Amino acid sequence: MNVVEMHAITKYFGEMIANDHVDFDLRKGEIHALLGENGAGKTTLMRILYGLYKQNSGEVQINGKTVQINSPKDAIANNIGMVTQHFALVPTMTVAENVVLGYTDKFVLDYTAIEESVSAAARKYGLDISPKALIRHLSVGQRQRVEILKALYRNAKVLILDEPTAVLIPQEVDVLFDALRKLCAEGLSVIFISHKLDEVTNITNRVTVLRDGKSIGTVNTCDMTQSQLAAMMVGREAFGIKRDNLETQKNIPLLEIKDLCAADDQGLPALRDVNLTIHTGEILGIAGVSGNGQKQLAETLCGVRTCSKGEITLDGVNLNGKDAAEFTTCGMGRIPEDRHEGVVGELTVYENLALEHLGKYSTRGFLNRKAIQAHANELISQFQIKAQAGDRIRTLSGGNMQKVLLARVLSTQPKIVIAPQPTRGLDVGATDYVRQQLLEQRNRGAGVMLISEDLDEILALSDRIAVMYEGEVVGILNASEATPERLGLLMSGAVKEM
Amino acid sequence: METTRKKLRFIKTNNPPFWIKPLIPVLALIGTFIITSGLILWAKANPFETYYYFLLAPLGNRVSLLEILVKSTPLMLTGVAVTFAFATGYYNIGAEGQLYAGAIAAAGLGMALHGVPAIFAIPIMIIGGFIAGMAWALIPALLKVKLAVDEVVTTLLMNSVMAYIVSALLNGPWRDPNSGWPQSEEISPTAMFFKIVPRSRLNFGFIVALVAILVLWLVMTRTSFGLKMRAVGLGKPAARFAGINVNKTILIAALVSGGIAGIAGVAEVAGIQFHLIGELSAGYGYTGVIIATLGSLNAFGVAIASLFFGLVDAGAQTVSRALGVPVYLGEVTQATMLLVALGMLVLQRYRIRRM
Amino acid sequence: MEIFLINLIAATLRVSTPILLAAIGETFTERAGILNLGIEGIMFFGAFVGFLAADISGSLWIGFLFAVISGILAGLLMGLLSVSLGVNQHVSGLGITLLLTGLALFGFRLQYGGRSTPPSIEPFGQVNPFANVPALGTITQQYLLTYITFLVIIPLAWWVLYRTRYGLHIRAVGENPEAVDAAGVNVYAIRYSVLAIGGGLMAAGGAFLSLAQLGAFSHGIISGRGWVAIAIVIFGNWVPVKVMFGALIFGGTYALQLRLQAMGLKLPIPYETFLALPYIVTIVALVLAGRNASYPAALLKPYRRE
């Protein structure tokens, strides 16, 4: 008997169909991958199982019985636990408070008893964590352990993990996988949402592949090769872009970063004496686990965060003390990390395109509306953006939104392009497009800084790779000498190669 | 937001059907009347008769039509003032205090301008009121951009402080010894706004209000500063990233907002009262927030909402005289309308569909 | 001087009571992520309803009860707008203030409009457990509601927020409603319930003014005390005991102003300076404390699952 069966699940968001008659089943003690690209409907399906969404049609059975799961409360009652991609933790509270949240039997809280029981549970499941620690003081890996502990504390027999490895370094992934194997041996069943083929083949027993909201099929992992799975996932055998190793002149330094220090929003040091150089015609990849200063590095180089020390020199011009608008005029091509915070959703495509260059598009304070719209239409066709100039930008897909941001930056032929997480959350087509554009910038002689948490992306595109750990650059490798293992060691802070 | 009824569902949509938007004010109006008729019954009046006097009778004759325009003048100005701030994401709820700041300036200048011809006196009054409103708005705006102190609370508290300043002036140095009421002496006749229609209260202030509407429209839709304001209001991080100086934009918008609210005070002193009095504003600064919201922060919408609220204010007085229903029916109606419309706006985001 | 100080302390406790009740109410709603700008109107409405119900029924406590109920209903209305419909909290809160202010004035005019003298009732009497002790006896001469506020409501508010499951949920909802939802707790129910509690406390604060301190209702009865309460909540960093100190600062300034007026000193500055002083002190306190204020992370953000 299957612990979970989902039959013909259909879910609409507005008029978009996210799950189209999807079937799914989970056996006791197995690790079952839910494989698919971004936007294939994996997370939606699992949020339905966990009661965060309600399906429009279809039924869910737990241990052979049809159940109505209207809220996470029902899911928890059916022994289902979920670790979402953005952790559902309260940063200002302790581990113990987070674990018992919504799962305490008494109205009055006895903190001693709570901390003891949480600590006992942590020992039982082999998840080393202190119940009194505040969440905001924990690393990402530790927070994930709290999330898993939270589910197990609620007697979860089914554990849903939504892209659990995205935030971990390779070595932490191994620790997670060991823990999961042990828990499954004791009877836990795991649903593992992923788009990474090597992980799926490494740890799972079976795979269900989703594509465009439809189930493509369920297979035994051991019967499949990675390329067969890839074909199921994207509907074509090969994917990804090829980097033609075009020799470009990369001996002229373009952007020089010297002893750069900056603080994060809490005022704590986020960058510590960063020294980097980007040459003409090269892509410098920045690898690292998220939260090690990459965000602050990107913001500082984009002129939206002031450095406390150090120098940024672009083609001989010192950028210290300049504001974001001056960074642009000096030739810094700035792509925002979070595209939803990089566009003003309620403004139109043409207004967003003009926003960075208002000086160019106005005379005596009045907008040249014709020039703005003509420019927008030009970029829309040049960058194959699927939208009208007058559409509100929030109605665009993530890929098209990213194209708008790329167009805004690249149309000015910047000397340097800062690209933090440029393909995060994009589907394969848009991802390829963005990567292709970055390569074209390199080939035309610009310097590109590619900051990414996706090691495959870094390895595929970069000429050189710098690794960040706790705000420091702990190693710079040529792409030819970089391997995932070597990068992983650097990313974990275990070694330095400077 | 899902109904369990047979296959009829609320679907979230980005493109509401075209007929929804004009329908919202109508539905809000009907909803408001249903709710407020309870009050009218409490006052032992007939709701239909009341609504006739309230909303139709004032439209029926020339005198009360002009009175609607008079009543809508300060509302238009505070509505524009609040829109400038809200559109930039700065919640200036201090238009009431800024209005009084402008009124103080107008009364002070007006009393000092005896003998100065109107062609100089009136511009001086308007500029003085603008500067005074701006100055009163400066403190919370600076606290916001320099120290990140929440502007909602400070602007509200500043309103209370301003009320005591006005009271101090009227009970102290500015008190007209010849009057039984706490009010200032009359301003110079040359500083008084001229009448647009003779033997009515409709004056130059209304033209000033229309100009303010026009300026709002022009700035918001045609200038790069307007685009900056909207970008800051709708998405601060994106605006900052695009190289817009967010704090400077907020500061300017806050000051312009205060200045225009100050002009509302000038219009009341120079156009209607000719004295500074404690009850100069019937909460116009707060009503401005309702008007800006109902007008969806859009110049045309603000104009329509002000005119309608002018009608409500004029009608409330008619009702009070004719039927003895307390005049506060007007305020209740305006606030109810805001809340009902806010609820209705949510509907705009959904469409009903059979699936 | 000694008498002056003792009287000042006694007056401070009295004057702080209504603000403190409202500020504790606001602390609860903001801790769960809702800024309730309806506070000023709810206090005003509570003062009116309390007065009206007490006048009609002849019982001050019945009046107080009705005031609290009216506040709870007003809180639920705020819930409908800001929680269920997800409307902008600034605008909906202000709308509620304007609505309730208008309603109270409408009702007051209707009930008492014809009278030439403002209506009044015999207010709550004061109690004094230490009536015979000099000095202390002056300070302890207080309304029962003041005792309840300082000795019951404040400790209770702390206990609920930090020592109960419900308080854990409130604090979590204000920081990360997604986490609370994922843990199987109904975010909306928590937010509605704190709005009801908060509304009840705000209205109780208003009713204290009309039923105890003044024994009358007037247009200026609240005059910005609700806004002060909001400032005090920020000043107190959303912690009940610190909020209490904030209320005492405002109350102290206000009481000082009352004492100075009562002494009838001939001062070269207008007495309005003293009236405005508590508001100015509040702004200054807000500026000084606001820099370290740690706002609940989810404040002003409506929660939606999709």
Can you lay out the helices and strands and say which pair or pack?
The complex is a heterotrimer of chains A (498), B (355) and C (306).
Chain A: E1 4-13, E2 16-26, E3 31-35, H1 42-49, E4 57-62, E5 65-67, H2 72-77, E6 80-83, H3 95-100, H4 111-124, H5 140-153, E7 158-162, H6 170-185, E8 189-194, H7 197-203, E9 206-211, E10 214-220, H8 226-234, E11 253-263, E12 269-279, E13 283-287, H9 294-301, E14 309-314, E15 317-318, H10 324-329, E16 332-334, H11 339-342, H12 349-355, E17 362-363, E18 366-367, H13 369-382, H14 398-410, E19 416-420, H15 428-443, E20 447-451, H16 455-461, E21 464-469, E22 472-478, H17 484-491
Parallel strand pairs in A: 3-8, 3-9, 6-7, 7-8, 13-20, 13-21, 16-19, 19-20
Antiparallel strand pairs in A: 1-2, 1-4, 4-5, 9-10, 11-12, 11-14, 14-15, 17-18, 21-22
Helix pairs in contact in A: 12-13, 12-14, 14-15
Chain B: E1 8-12, H1 20-42, H2 47-56, H3 62-87, H4 95-112, H5 118-147, H6 151-171, H7 204-222, H8 224-234, H9 236-241, H10 246-273, H11 284-294, H12 299-323, H13 329-347, E2 350-354
Antiparallel strand pairs in B: 1-2
Helix pairs in contact in B: 1-13, 2-12, 3-7, 3-10, 3-11, 3-12, 4-5, 4-6, 4-10, 4-11, 5-6, 5-10, 7-8, 7-10, 7-12, 8-10, 11-12, 11-13, 12-13
Chain C: H1 2-31, H2 39-57, H3 60-84, H4 89-112, E1 126-127, H5 136-139, E2 142-143, H6 144-163, H7 165-175, H8 177-182, H9 187-213, H10 225-235, H11 240-263, H12 272-290
Antiparallel strand pairs in C: 1-2
